[in-house]
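User: What would this chain look like folded?
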Amino acid sequence: MLWILFGFLCLLAIGFAAWPMYARDSRITPLLVIVIVTLVVLPAGMYYVQGSPDLPSAGSSAPEVDDLVNELARRLENNPEDLTGWRMLGRSYLAIRNFPGAIKAFERVLELEPTPSAQTLSSLGEAKLIVRRRHPVDGGNDAFRKRTRDRSQ
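Assistant: Here's the prediction, encoded as C-alpha coordinates.
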Protein backbone atom coordinates (compact mmCIF):
# COMPACT_ATOMS: atom_id res chain seq x y z
CA MET A 1 0.00 0.00 0.00
CA LEU A 2 2.82 2.36 0.87
CA TRP A 3 4.54 1.81 -2.46
CA ILE A 4 1.31 2.52 -4.34
CA LEU A 5 0.96 5.81 -2.49
CA PHE A 6 4.62 6.58 -3.14
CA GLY A 7 4.18 5.89 -6.86
CA PHE A 8 1.11 8.10 -7.05
CA LEU A 9 2.91 10.97 -5.33
CA CYS A 10 5.87 10.58 -7.69
CA LEU A 11 3.59 10.77 -10.71
CA LEU A 12 1.94 13.84 -9.25
CA ALA A 13 5.33 15.48 -8.65
CA ILE A 14 6.43 14.67 -12.19
CA GLY A 15 3.20 16.15 -13.50
CA PHE A 16 3.83 19.44 -11.71
CA ALA A 17 7.57 19.70 -12.29
CA ALA A 18 8.53 17.76 -15.39
CA TRP A 19 5.48 17.92 -17.66
CA PRO A 20 5.72 21.68 -18.33
CA MET A 21 9.37 21.21 -19.28
CA TYR A 22 8.50 18.38 -21.67
CA ALA A 23 5.53 20.25 -23.15
CA ARG A 24 7.70 23.29 -23.85
CA ASP A 25 10.45 21.42 -25.72
CA SER A 26 8.45 18.34 -26.89
CA ARG A 27 11.50 16.19 -26.24
CA ILE A 28 13.38 14.70 -23.32
CA THR A 29 16.18 17.03 -22.34
CA PRO A 30 19.02 16.35 -19.88
CA LEU A 31 17.39 18.76 -17.44
CA LEU A 32 14.13 16.79 -17.65
CA VAL A 33 16.02 13.55 -16.87
CA ILE A 34 17.66 15.19 -13.86
CA VAL A 35 14.27 16.38 -12.58
CA ILE A 36 12.71 12.91 -12.97
CA VAL A 37 15.65 11.22 -11.25
CA THR A 38 15.54 13.78 -8.46
CA LEU A 39 11.79 13.35 -7.95
CA VAL A 40 11.56 9.55 -8.23
CA VAL A 41 14.74 7.54 -8.08
CA LEU A 42 16.63 9.47 -5.43
CA PRO A 43 13.81 9.53 -2.78
CA ALA A 44 12.91 5.88 -3.46
CA GLY A 45 16.52 4.82 -3.11
CA MET A 46 16.98 6.84 0.05
CA TYR A 47 13.85 5.34 1.58
CA TYR A 48 14.93 1.84 0.66
CA VAL A 49 18.38 2.33 2.19
CA GLN A 50 17.52 4.48 5.21
CA GLY A 51 13.88 3.58 5.79
CA SER A 52 12.43 0.26 6.82
CA PRO A 53 10.06 -0.92 4.10
CA ASP A 54 10.07 -4.53 5.32
CA LEU A 55 9.33 -3.89 9.00
CA PRO A 56 5.91 -4.86 10.34
CA SER A 57 3.70 -2.13 11.69
CA ALA A 58 4.64 -0.77 15.11
CA GLY A 59 1.36 -1.91 16.66
CA SER A 60 2.21 -5.60 16.43
CA SER A 61 5.38 -5.45 18.51
CA ALA A 62 4.44 -2.74 21.01
CA PRO A 63 3.32 -3.87 24.45
CA GLU A 64 -0.35 -3.49 25.17
CA VAL A 65 -1.38 -0.49 27.26
CA ASP A 66 -3.35 -2.71 29.62
CA ASP A 67 -0.23 -4.80 30.26
CA LEU A 68 1.79 -1.68 31.06
CA VAL A 69 -0.87 -0.37 33.43
CA ASN A 70 -1.08 -3.76 35.17
CA GLU A 71 2.71 -3.78 35.55
CA LEU A 72 2.54 -0.32 37.16
CA ALA A 73 -0.15 -1.55 39.56
CA ARG A 74 2.04 -4.54 40.50
CA ARG A 75 5.00 -2.25 41.14
CA LEU A 76 2.87 -0.07 43.40
CA GLU A 77 1.94 -3.11 45.50
CA ASN A 78 5.64 -3.36 46.37
CA ASN A 79 6.04 0.40 46.82
CA PRO A 80 2.72 1.74 48.15
CA GLU A 81 4.20 5.12 49.19
CA ASP A 82 5.12 6.14 45.61
CA LEU A 83 2.99 9.26 45.11
CA THR A 84 4.09 9.80 41.50
CA GLY A 85 3.32 6.18 40.66
CA TRP A 86 -0.20 6.44 42.10
CA ARG A 87 -0.84 9.62 40.10
CA MET A 88 0.36 7.91 36.95
CA LEU A 89 -1.80 4.86 37.70
CA GLY A 90 -4.88 7.04 38.22
CA ARG A 91 -4.32 8.88 34.95
CA SER A 92 -3.67 5.61 33.16
CA TYR A 93 -6.88 4.11 34.50
CA LEU A 94 -8.77 7.19 33.31
CA ALA A 95 -7.19 6.83 29.87
CA ILE A 96 -8.19 3.18 29.51
CA ARG A 97 -11.61 3.91 31.00
CA ASN A 98 -11.15 1.86 34.17
CA PHE A 99 -12.95 4.39 36.34
CA PRO A 100 -13.29 2.32 39.54
CA GLY A 101 -9.52 1.71 39.41
CA ALA A 102 -8.93 5.42 38.84
CA ILE A 103 -11.04 6.26 41.89
CA LYS A 104 -9.00 3.93 44.10
CA ALA A 105 -5.72 5.29 42.72
CA PHE A 106 -6.69 8.94 43.18
CA GLU A 107 -8.01 8.26 46.69
CA ARG A 108 -4.59 6.80 47.47
CA VAL A 109 -2.97 9.93 46.02
CA LEU A 110 -5.11 12.06 48.35
CA GLU A 111 -3.88 9.98 51.31
CA LEU A 112 -0.25 10.52 50.28
CA GLU A 113 -0.41 14.20 49.27
CA PRO A 114 0.34 16.62 52.08
CA THR A 115 -2.16 19.08 50.57
CA PRO A 116 -4.74 17.84 48.06
CA SER A 117 -3.99 19.27 44.63
CA ALA A 118 -6.65 20.64 42.33
CA GLN A 119 -5.60 18.19 39.62
CA THR A 120 -6.07 15.19 41.91
CA LEU A 121 -9.42 16.39 43.18
CA SER A 122 -10.58 17.14 39.64
CA SER A 123 -9.50 13.76 38.32
CA LEU A 124 -11.11 11.97 41.25
CA GLY A 125 -14.32 13.92 40.77
CA GLU A 126 -14.33 13.13 37.05
CA ALA A 127 -13.95 9.41 37.67
CA LYS A 128 -16.65 9.41 40.34
CA LEU A 129 -19.09 11.30 38.13
CA ILE A 130 -18.59 8.87 35.27
CA VAL A 131 -19.09 5.87 37.55
CA ARG A 132 -22.12 7.56 39.07
CA ARG A 133 -23.75 7.99 35.67
CA ARG A 134 -23.20 4.33 34.90
CA HIS A 135 -23.96 2.95 38.36
CA PRO A 136 -25.52 5.29 40.93
CA VAL A 137 -23.21 5.71 43.92
CA ASP A 138 -22.97 8.37 46.60
CA GLY A 139 -20.33 11.06 46.64
CA GLY A 140 -19.70 11.71 42.95
CA ASN A 141 -19.53 15.49 43.35
CA ASP A 142 -17.73 15.53 46.70
CA ALA A 143 -14.27 16.08 45.25
CA PHE A 144 -15.48 18.97 43.10
CA ARG A 145 -17.35 20.55 46.02
CA LYS A 146 -14.30 20.23 48.30
CA ARG A 147 -12.13 22.05 45.76
CA THR A 148 -14.74 24.80 45.38
CA ARG A 149 -14.98 25.23 49.16
CA ASP A 150 -11.17 25.36 49.45
CA ARG A 151 -10.98 28.13 46.86
CA SER A 152 -13.74 30.24 48.43
CA GLN A 153 -11.98 30.31 51.80
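The chain has nine helices and no strands. If you want, I can go into more detail on any region.
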